[in-house]
Amino acid sequence: MAEEKVNLTPQVDLKDAYVIGEYNFAAWSKGKDENDNPFDTSNYLKVLPHPDEKIVFKDPYQDWQNDHQDGKFKEKSDSGNYYSSWGPDKVLDVNLRMSQLSELEIEGLGILKAGDGKIPWLDDKATPYEILRAYNGLVPGPMMITEPGDTIKVTLKNDLDHSSNFHTHGLHVSPLGHGDNVLFGLAPGETWEVEINIPEVHFIGTDW
Ligand SMILES: [Cu+2]
User: Fold this and answer.
1) Which residues pair with 119 in a beta bridge?
2) What local confidence, expressed as pLDDT, does residue 55 receive?
3) Ligand 1 centre and the CA of 122: distance in Å?
4) Distance 109 CA to ligand 1 centre (A)
5) What's the CA angle centered on 172, arms 147 and 189, to 5 degrees?
6) How many whole angstroms separate alpha carbon 82 and alpha carbon 138?
7) How close is the Cα of 169 to the center of ligand 1, in Å?
8) CB contact set of 92 (below 8 Å; sequence gap of 6+)
9) Ligand 1: distance of its center to the CA of 165 in Å?
10) Which listed residue, 54, 85, 138, 181, has the most CB atoms within 10 A of its CB?
11) By the 8 A CB rule, do 57 and 140 touch?
12) pLDDT in the model for residue 186
């Protein structure tokens, strides 16, 4: 049997292109409704930036560097995109709220709009492409900077409509109690006080 080839080449000028992930692109790009009109794509993710524009992510690391010069120590950026216990602080107090967004604007990219997670012309199959979730409504989410020996205290609120979990990748820390516990389910509406103790001998790294 000959392998069917899916053509993923956009049929529109890239300046106007909308893409919702390779998985759905082939079906979407030739999509017509029952009256043979093209689908209304205004609610789908516009993920290809205009070629003349510069995408501006509110880069937490750059903000942190700007705020921490000449011996200055700041616990939080004005926009909330970073938290820091770098310097004399030993405890990093962080407030995180998990929520679903209906839209989000990224300068140079446009507005990302979320749908209900279902695509009618794909038999209402739920897909991840229309759902937009974030910590504190920020993309990228807040960055935390600590030093070995510091304690991260996160007040975590789950404002999603399903249970969730909070854990890190790459840290060599204890999962016990309200620590870095992948097995703990946080119910909708619930708040959890997470405490993560970074060992004095922890290596330097970028963890997430
Ligand atoms: Cu994970």
Assistant:
1) 125
2) 67
3) 29
4) 27
5) 85
6) 11
7) 6
8) 83, 84, 85, 144, 145, 146, 150, 151, 152, 153
9) 9
10) 85
11) yes
12) 94
Ligand 1 centroid from CA 11, angstroms: 37
pLDDT for res 202 = 96
Q: How far is the CA of 38 from the centre of ligand 1 (A)?
A: 39
Alpha carbons 46 and 49: distance in angstroms, whole number: 8
Burial of 2: CB neighbours in 10 Å, binned 0-12, 13-18, 19+: exposed
**Which residues neighbour 176 within 8 Å (Cβ) at sequence distance 6 or greater?**
none
What pLDDT sits at residue 156? 96
Q: Ligand 1: distance of its center to the CA of 166 in Å? A: 8
Q: How many angstroms separate the alpha carbon of residue 173 from the centre of ligand 1?
A: 14
How far, in Å, is the centroid of ligand 1 from the Cα of 84? Answer: 22
Residue 99: predicted pLDDT: 95
Ligand 1 geometric centre to CA of 101 (Å) = 21
**Whose structure tokens read 């049997």?**
1
The total of other beta-carbon atoms located within 10 Å of residue 54's CB is 9
Q: Are 135 and 141 in contact (CB under 8 A)?
A: yes
168: CA distance to ligand 1 center in Å?
6
